[in-house]
Write a structure and sequence with these properties.
93 residues; two-stranded parallel sheet; 4 helices; 2 strands; 41% helix
Length: 93
């Protein structure tokens, strides 16, 4: 069966992933940040993608990344793209 996993390093996802997430969010976030926090759904994984993609080689059908490359140092972009290629199954995209 297909699964989608949101790998994120944002403060909202780090809070959401914690055991006390909802209680902490109500105290620390307000306005648009709280709205963004409340909109987070699905399988979440907190991970710093500068340390690679935390999946086995050839195990992923597709990788979608939005608003990621601009947060990676120029020297790290080739490595990040190589990581995407590494985790993709043959024919993956």
């Amino acid at each position: 069966s297909a699964a989608t996993i949101n790998i994120d390093w944002s403060p909202q996802v780090r809070i959401k992933s914690s055991k006390l997430g909802d209680k902490v969010a109500k105290r620390l976030l307000s306005g648009e940040r709280l709205d963004n926090y409340n909109a987070i759904e699905g399988n979440l994984m907190v991970h710093d993608l500068r340390k690679g993609i935390p999946f086995e080689s050839g195990s992923i059908d597709a990788v979608y990344h939005s608003h990621v490359l601009e947060h990676i140092d120029r020297d790290g972009i080739d490595g990040f793209l190589a990581e995407i290629k590494r985790v993709l199954k043959p024919g993956g995209r």
